[in-house]
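FYI - complex with uridine-5'-diphosphate, inputs then prediction.
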Amino acid sequence: MDKRPVLYIVIPCYNEEEVLPLTAPLFREQIARMADAGKIDPESRILFVNDGSRDGTWEIITELSRQDPHFQGLCLSRNRGHQNALLCGLLEAREHCDITISIDCDGQDDIRAMDSMVDEYLSGAEIVYGVRSSRATDTFFKRFTAQSFYRLLNRMGADTVYNHADYRLVSARVLKEFANFREVNIFLRGMFPLVGFKSTSVYYERSERMAGKSHYPLKKMLALAFDGITSLSVKPIRIITGLGVAISVISFGLILYALIAWIAGSAVAGWASTLIAVALLGGIQLISLGVIGEYVGKIFLETKRRPRYIVSERTPGAPGAEDDPAAKA
Ligand code: UDP
Ligand code: MG
């Protein structure tokens, strides 16, 4: 085989000082193992993106990069959320590598699945989705909410790969095209299928976090689902339109009924039906306004074209560090 691909493993980290010292060596071993097997270039890198952590995460990253140049780090100027941190890592890495694999830093996603991801890339896939084959270690509640999350997304027209989070291999070629997706509201797992190219999935078992705690409680998960839907699909607006049509038809029937009753002289003072109609319509109208408002808000955010992330520090050797005097120190 000719040249081996340079891999960048992109890992967003937010307040992960407990788990990073445990998982960082595992990522390093994985690179060494795949390089030994001749699958990737030994100059492959692990790129941490510190998402404005308030604990010692960035200190751990800089220390790791001092000890071993395979570790690199980018530090965001503040906490921007998992999706933006990941976007930062992918876009910054893309000109320095042939493939990226994004993964969480908590060891929940099986690092060994990278072998099969790279194999799929070597046999022609440009995007390889890591899919959880079972959720045996999740609590019933987490499993139920997470699976409802994927179903809701797909039903609402945001096409995503079922049970795939953000553990995926993406080639630099795909990232080059992806860089033209300039939206500010990003939902990466729904956007990569839109880029196209040959894609496939590999399956792995998801395990428990090695340390620390989840940053995705139910509230954040619901917010992510809602964001994903409204960023990718206008189906909710269509549903509202459909609802409007249905209610109008029913109302028309009611009006006819009332008229006939009035003509027949049997109209009674029906406060119950009036009350129900007013309450029902009031509720539906408020929800509808909220949903439409969400889209208007998204347009507002998009038109501002604010930067999606701001890098405040880079470890020496990290992508972009050559142009950044502060990183030379
Ligand atoms: N994360 C981040 N910024 C945030 C929240 C989370 O970069 O604001 C990172 C976090 O460090 C981890 C990944 O995103 O690497 C996934 O978070 P977590 O494990 O808490 O979510 P879960 O696996 O429970 O869904
Ligand atoms: Mg996790």
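The mean pLDDT is 85. The first strand starts at residue 7 and ends at 13.
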